[in-house]
Known about the structure:
The chain has 166 residues and is an all-beta fold. Helix content is 0%, strand content 55%.
Amino acid sequence: MKLKAVAASTNKSSQGFLEHKRKKTWIDNKSGCHCFMLYASDDNIEVAKLSHVCWLDVRGKFKISDLSPGIVYQVAYVVKLTKGASGWELPITLRLSLPGEEVQDRQVSLLEKPRGEWIELNVGNFLTDGRQTREVCFDIYQHGGHWKNGLIIKGAILRPKDNLTP
């Protein structure tokens, strides 16, 4: 299981990588299903903050076999826009890629999102199969466009669709 963020400027080809080494695991009291929070960083801060980037690419993946079988799971990124966040005029794309090459894409505008508070960006939903040994992949990206800043990524959450609190 892994969460990786890549951000690069157009001036140079530097890339920053955040490899996931922290997770929170719990059993949902209501459904009895496994839930997971994948943090964006393995340090004490537990967040990744984007500052002055032209393109954004955040990728996560998770073994389906670690989830409860026969359950519809939701994947969401937990993010915050700072009060001074800018450059988000174009929508970002949220992508959920499932084994068998099924892909769910949706676009979300961050202009309308509140500033200074944690929000969830729903990537998509999928049904687990107890026999599935492959991975579900989930991304946030926006390639090209304006210079952007002020997006803080706490991590990604995987939980049963009806469970709304981590």
